[in-house]
Amino acid sequence: MAEFGDLAGLTGESGDKKREITTEMLDYGFVEGCEDVEVLKGVVEALKTGRDGHYPDLEKKAEERLMDLLPAKEKIKIMRLKHKTTPQEVSEAEFTLSTWEKSVAKKDKKILGQSDEDVAASKADPKQVRALF
Q1: Selection from 83, 59, 79 nearest residue 70 by Cα
Q2: Where among 57, 81, 105 does a domain terminate?
Q3: Which of 61, 81, 101 is the last residue of a domain?
Q4: Separation of alpha carbons 124 and 37, rounded Å
Q5: Containing structural domain, residue 116
Q6: Is 13 found in the same domain as 61?
Q7: For the whole prediction, is pTM greater than 0.90?
Q8: Same domain membership, residue 41 and residue 12
Q9: Which is nearest to 12 in space by CA: 63, 89, 71?
Q10: Whether residue 110 sits in one domain with residue 68
Q11: Among the listed residues 25, 30, 32, the one whose alpha carbon sits nearest the alpha carbon of residue 46
Q12: Which end of the chain has fewer beta carbons closer than 10 Å to its terminal beta carbon, N or C?
């Protein structure tokens, strides 16, 4: 969960109630017992800056605790913003685009293969255009 980046910023809340985060707050016991979302956001932010040292496990624990306390709507928002596309999803999208591209190219060739008279006639009669496809 340490890949959440600016977790405090993703929740969209302003830091109006921001408290000063002391070194004593950067502790597993404090993080586990903390019920204040704003304080936990500050703890996560302080841990990310490395102001008092680099503690990846504590940072992960603080993020997990913050996610536990956040409302469902905010959790979903964060998860959607941080979703990583899988190679399978990329492959499926490429296949879909490739299939679409080939079908458009085929229709282009069909349209361009028409004589000038056919094109002029199809402009006059919209039903004829529909009949081509």
Answers
A1: 79
A2: 81
A3: 81
A4: 67
A5: 87-132
A6: yes
A7: no
A8: yes
A9: 71
A10: no
A11: 25
A12: C
Instruction: Give pLDDT < 50 ranges for the chain.
Output: 1-3, 10-16
DSSP assignment string, the chain? -GGG-SHHHHT----TTPPPPPGGGSSHHHHHH---HHHHHHHHHHHHHTTT---HHHHHHHHHHHHHHS-HHHHHHHHHHTPPPPHHHHHHHHHHHHHHHHHHHHHHHHHHTS-HHHHHHHHH-HHHHHHH-
In sequence order, which residues have a C-beta less than 8 Å from that of residue 52 and are 6 or more positions away?
23, 26, 46
pLDDT at 82: 83
- Residues 45/10, Cβ–Cβ less than 8 Å: no
The answer to whether residues 70 and 91 belong to one domain is: no
**Tally of structural domains, the chain:** 2
pLDDT of the residue at 15: 46
What pLDDT does 120 receive? 54
For residues 77 and 100, state if they share a domain. no
